[in-house]
Amino acid sequence: MKIQYIAALICTGLLSACGGGGSNSGTSANPTPPTGSNTNTSGTSLDQVSNPNLNKPGTGIPGSETSSNPIVQALQIGSVKGLTAADRTVLLQLATQLADRYKQNQNGALADIFADPSATLTLNHTTDSSEINVGSRTVATPLLTADDGSGMAAIAQYGKGRGLAYGKDVLSWIANQSQETQHTALFTRAFNWVLTGKAAGPLPNTVKFATTGYTASNVSKMISTQGKAAQAISCDLSASNNTCWQEADLLVFGSGTPNTPGLDSLIRKYMENGKAVIYMHPNWIDSAGGRQVLAGMGMTLGGYPGNYFSSAAGVSIGSTRTVAENLSRSDQMSQLVQSLTLMGQDKPQLAISQDSSVTTPITQIHNELAAMQGNGSNLFNDPTTDLYRLLVLWADLYRPEIQYGKINRDTAPGDFLRTFASDSWLAFNRTDTTVATAGQGDFMPVAAHSLPVSSSAESIEITIPQGSGITSIGRAAVPGKPVQIEIVNNGGASSLKVQTNYLRAWGNPLTDNINEGYKRPRRPQSFAILLAGSGETNFVTPFGGPLYLSYSGATAGQNVTLRIRGAAKYAHFDFTKTQTQAEIDEAVAAMKRRDFGWQTAKLVGGEIQQTIGYASSEMGNKTPEQYIVGEIKELLFDSNHIANGYNNMPMSSNVAALCTQFNWDCTGSIHRAPGVQHFVGWIATCGYLCSGNPSDGYAGIGGTGWGHSHELGHNTVQRVMQITFNGKGCVVECDNNILASAHMLRQFALRGIDTGHATDHPGLYQDIVANRASSLTGNAKVLDMQTRLWDMANGQNPMRAVHFQLGFLFSRYRANEVKPTMQSTMDYFTLLTKADRLVGQAWDSTNKSKYGMSRFADNKINNPDLLFVLSSKLIGKDLRNVFAMYGFTLSQSALDSVADLNLPVLTEQFYALQTGKHNHLTTGQWLDLSSTTPAYPF
Q: Which intervals carry biased composition (Low complexity) (predicted)?
């Protein structure tokens, strides 16, 4: 294979890397030839190539359509099927040479801009600004980074043109000499470089410019300060059909630029044809149009809310920064060249456990690939991605020989580094990739490679549970097999993406136990790939995994319909809709076969994914129906949803009757589960089980233990369960445990399962006894009990018992039960949480009395007051004495509101339960504390 022939064809598809916009001379001539690694084994240099400015956006590599060279064809179509393992060396050599050429070109431009020794780097954007970061290192280069590394400004080189962007309107500052005037010299050099290719200029005698979304007078002043004439041209640069851009030398954009389709490609077109493009972002506020302009220049705008909360180090450059240090910070190719060179060595001298910096540029490319594909960019149909394509194809060729679990990062650093790179340089939005033939470690067994996939498209309807989030689709991508996805109905969502798995922890080969080797792909879940608005989106992954839909801008409860082919069925259970017995049987069979790495389940308000090994372990001798339906759904999720009063659970007759009696809307949309709690059984982010969303752990998802109900409680707990006084009380890690305790109570009644997580009724009673023994009276007595009980330092179990004591009073006085039952206690929680939402979301001045809130001007009611008023209305008793017994200080508005209900005042009462028998309600005994304090009966 003639490397020089391949290099020539590739470089005709490059741009600044082989000359053009990156030239310091302002012409399209090639820059000074690099030395050293720029020659390949055939002795042919990349300097021996034709002028690069033949390329047109969207056409890929010129001439490759007709070339019979397999490497050139691979670079065009994104597949290595026509290549052999021997071609890896060629691809790596070409990538190394190309990265080196980019280094020379970019560093030369930076050196020119910073060549004036009088130009100071000191600059402060203030927090009313946004980051400007590099999205594609083959187009953009960091110009200025803040002291903490955040991007402040960047330059771009593409075709014959150049670009410049700042995260603050520095052009206005310098043109008007209003702020940061010490930056004048440096900004002027960057401004001149964009226009002429030379930082020292000079500018032409007359500079013609056009602006969109930016103040033209600032540009005029900037040009005039250099003694040149400025000629403004009226032109809507965001309009795809405009031709007036051709008259201008300089095109300046601001955050007011309209967000028009294809604007990023239009910016690329301007630069390709030699135009100077500048973007100034004025503040921390987002700009959709500005993002497109920056995307055209290979840059990205920081996320919401910009730098609003940044420290000074995130928005400024201090006076101690040297030019040499800044050039080093902006050099984004030298480390990559070094890593690529080491990857080409069979046994490089590395101790990666002690110094993993050699992997840093690999990860940087990985992150850039993720951003590109997430924005819908197709690497193999974009002329700016030449270097990325070479790296992705090299990764494809290396991948088949990887054996996870057998690579030690210190004794086999070369193999480790190459595996790390192959795992990192990925393209998911295409039709072909390769797989590690030995399997993907504990992420996916080798048996999954042979799973059958659908040959024809099937229509799949997916319920969107909330406005934005991630939800399982119910189909899987098989390693190496392409999936085609088409949107039939977007359900009103503004954005739809597809990805495999929803994980936040997946191990790290750089820090995992070295004796266990490189255990699994470094990031086995895919990037989130934007689905096209029309037509099919191609998707393929070397690792496989359950397919998930990532969505935003949606309406909860709507349905998205996708047409999918090339996907597999696996052990997935969907309880958000009616499943046929055949569907359940298929999922059960897949679970028993264990030929796919994961089992998933989808429920209203919750989703689980766990490795098939954990799923099988949790299931044990139970049938999948008993495990998935009987435990996960009926115990874990249903218990939480009943206690939270969600409308996916049927109301008991007692709850329905009281909702009617109170004239409450207990079934409306505000009672939907507010968010989906995801559980992952594989690897924990922290500890053994780790809270959050997703919540993950080194365990399968169990429906009978309190751990997962505790985590589910985090995501669903309502304010009526968080009781605080002076900053102390039942807060996070206590309020959510009230829901976990409700789960324990319900599962004991239904299944006889009595696991831990005590609600300490004897401890609560001891606090009452001690408080009464203090001989205090009135408010002093209440405050003493408040100090004893409502402090996490004294333990949360007695605090949590208070809510259950209120539930027991509901059982006695509203359900008329001699002894409390689980059902009536859960009825109390159902009504309490429904009422909490009604007060919060259905409040107005005409209906507040039906919630018992007659004396409140609005619904900004503190939590103790809310619990007191709602509990009094639900139980049908004025509970002021009971709440005083528990140390509640209540507002006069709350006391008067309950008085307006004309309810009988209830004396102090307590339902005693034996230690460890908190779920055994029939074994308890009522105590009357109205006049004496009886001894605890157990």
A: 25-45
DSSP bridge partners of 486 = 536, 563
Q: pLDDT digit string (tens) for 187-197?
A: 999 999 999 99
Give every CB contact of residue 11 below 8 A, 6+ residues apart in sequence.
17, 18, 46, 49, 50, 52, 98
Q: Show Cβ contacts of residue 911 under 8 Å, excluding neighbours closer than 6 positions.
A: 761, 805, 808, 809, 812, 820, 924, 925, 926, 927
pLDDT at residue 66, as a whole number: 53
> What secondary structure does DSSP assign to 419-488, as a single string?
HHHHHHS---SSS-----TT--TTSS-GGGGG----SS-EEEEEE--SSSEEEEEEEEEPTT--EEEEEE
The per-residue pLDDT of the chain, averaged, comes to 91
pLDDT in tens, 895-932: 999 999 999 999 999 999 999 999 999 999 999 999 99
Q: What is the dihedral of CA 463, 464, 469, 472, to 10 degrees?
A: 10
Residue 587 φ/ψ, nearest 5 degrees: -65, -40
Q: CA 224 to CA 219: how far, in whole Å?
A: 9
Give the 3-state secondary structure percentages of the chain, helix then strand then coil, rounded to 5. 40, 15, 45
**C-beta of residue 768 within 8 angstroms of C-beta of residue 781:** no
* pLDDT, mean of residues 844-864: 94
Does the residue 516 lie in any domain? yes
Residue 210 lies in a domain: yes
User: What is the CA angle 449-450-453, rounded to 5?
Assistant: 100
Cα separation, 732 vs 713, in Å, equals 10
CATH code: domain of residue 495: 2.60.120.1250
Where on the phi/psi map is residue 861: left (φ > 0), alpha (ψ -120 to 50), or beta?
Answer: beta
The type of residue at 191 is F
The total domain count for the chain is 2
Same domain for 290 and 422, yes or no, is no
Residue 746 placed within a domain: no
- Residue (of 505, 365, 373, 374) closest to 422 by Cα position: 365
Whether 262 and 410 map to the same domain: the answer is no
Pick from 305, 321, 337: which residue ends a domain?
Answer: 321
What angle is formed at CA 339 by the lines to CA 334 and CA 341, rounded to 5 degrees? Answer: 95
Enter the DSSP assignment of 33. Answer: P
Q: Are 197 and 23 in contact (CB under 8 A)?
A: yes
Q: Residue 495's beta-bridge partner residues?
A: 552
On whether both 166 and 315 belong to a single domain, the answer is yes
317 and 421 together in one domain: no
Give residue-wise pLDDT tens across range 697-738: 999 998 898 889 998 998 899 999 999 999 999 999 999 999
For residue 377, which amino acid is it? S
Which amino acid belongs to residue 411?
A: T
| CA distance to 341, 508, 580, 756, per residue, from 402 (Å) | 20, 16, 41, 45
- Look at residue 275 and tell me if it is in a domain: yes
For residues 283 and 410, membership in a common domain is answered with: no
What is the domain range of residue 291? 122-321
Indicate the Cα dihedral angle 888, 892, 895, 898, nearest 10°.
-140
Cβ contact 665:488 at 8 Å: no
pLDDT tens for residues 523-546? 999 999 999 999 999 999 999 999
Q: Which residues pair with 251 in a beta bridge?
A: 210, 277
| Chosen domain end from 568, 591, 622 | 568
Q: Tell me which of 32 and 401 has the higher pLDDT.
A: 401
What band does 36 get if pLDDT is binned at 50, 70 and 90? very low
Q: Which residues contact 514 (CB under 8 A, 6 or more apart)?
A: 353, 408, 409, 410
If 0-12 CB within 10 Å is exposed, 13-18 middle and 19+ buried, where does residue 206 land? exposed
- C-alpha angle with apex 137: 426 to 523, nearest 5 degrees? 25
Same domain membership, residue 233 and residue 143: yes
pLDDT of residue 67: 67
Q: Are residues 317 and 406 in the same domain?
A: no
Cα distance between residue 736 and residue 714, in whole Å = 5
- Do residue 299 and residue 427 come from a single domain? no
